[in-house]
Amino acid sequence: MIENTFMILDGIGQRSERRLWREGVLTWTHFLDTNPSFISPQRKEFFDETLAFACTELNEGNAEYFASAVKRYEHWRLFDVFKNDAVCLDIETNGLPPNSGGCVTLVGMYSREGYKCFVRGENLTEDALNEERS
Question: Fewest beta carbons within 10 Å, which of 17, 36, 63, 80?
Answer without folding.
Answer: 80
